[in-house]
């Protein structure tokens, strides 16, 4: 019996070209650091620090800790020296990046349908951003007011996609079994890998990402309207057995 639904955010609840968005994000943030570090070097270090989070397997360290430690190691700059400017960016400039995303009115209907069915709801976005950036993107998608059981962000998460440990951490937090959860996402390698843990999967085809390898098991695929129908009717991967 399904008890929880995990929703990816970027490309799933929030339509976007992820590569275009990340490029715009980096170009927007870098100038704020110009008095401390050259923009090109800043972007390079940000990418390296993000990669360190993705590759991390040390459960005792949060993604935020891994990111900040890597940043300091590469630059000699303590994160505390720039955190005020970074916070200012997220509150004043990051909201302007909304123009690099789109809006799907079905997103809120899908989440509402899941809430109506009594499922626990998780925003299972890759936790490489601070919570303030995740909450802002939830506002853009129109689902920010729902009672989520957990939102993955880099402050509290200890692993990233596509690591299976990322999904294991969510299951443990929800106190559920993997086969009681459905992962909904548009990325074959980052989202459908949840099937390796035993989660059910719904591959969203509105903005699919598939790098070709590896390929994971998919229990159901379809577009947003088909996802909505499946949740409302408890059909397909959401069928009660």
Automatic annotation (TrEMBL):
<dbReference type="InterPro" id="IPR023214">
    <property type="entry name" value="HAD_sf"/>
</dbReference>
<dbReference type="GO" id="GO:0016787">
    <property type="term" value="F:hydrolase activity"/>
</dbReference>
<dbReference type="InterPro" id="IPR036412">
    <property type="entry name" value="HAD-like_sf"/>
</dbReference>
<protein>
    <submittedName>
        <fullName>HAD family hydrolase</fullName>
    </submittedName>
</protein>
<dbReference type="Pfam" id="PF00702">
    <property type="entry name" value="Hydrolase"/>
</dbReference>
<dbReference type="InterPro" id="IPR006439">
    <property type="entry name" value="HAD-SF_hydro_IA"/>
</dbReference>
<keyword id="KW-0378">Hydrolase</keyword>
<dbReference type="InterPro" id="IPR051540">
    <property type="entry name" value="S-2-haloacid_dehalogenase"/>
</dbReference>
């Amino acid at each position: 019996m399904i008890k929880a639904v995990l929703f990816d955010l970027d490309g799933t609840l929030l339509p976007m070209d992820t590569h275009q968005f990340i490029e715009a994000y980096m170009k927007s943030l870098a100038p704020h650091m110009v008095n401390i570090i050259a923009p090109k070097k800043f972007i390079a270090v940000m990418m390296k620090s993000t990669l360190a989070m993705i590759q991390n397997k040390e459960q005792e360290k949060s993604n935020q800790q891994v990111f900040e430690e890597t940043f300091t190691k590469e630059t000699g700059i303590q994160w505390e020296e720039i955190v005020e400017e970074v916070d200012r960016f997220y509150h004043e400039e990051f909201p302007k990046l909304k123009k690099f995303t789109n809006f799907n009115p079905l997103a809120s209907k899908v989440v509402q349908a899941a809430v109506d069915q009594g499922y626990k709801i998780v925003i299972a976005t890759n936790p490489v951003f601070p919570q303030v950036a995740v909450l802002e993107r939830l506002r853009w998608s129109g689902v920010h007011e729902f009672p989520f059981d957990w939102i993955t962000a880099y402050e509290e998460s200890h692993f990233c996609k596509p690591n299976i440990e990322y999904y294991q951490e969510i299951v443990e937090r929800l106190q559920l079994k993997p086969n009681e959860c459905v992962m909904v996402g548009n990325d074959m390698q980052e989202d459908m890998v949840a099937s390796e843990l035993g989660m059910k999967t719904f591959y969203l085809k509105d903005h699919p990402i598939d790098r070709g390898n590896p390929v994971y098991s998919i229990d159901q695929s379809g577009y947003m309207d088909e996802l909505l129908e499946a949740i409302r009717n408890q059909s397909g991967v959401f069928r009660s057995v």
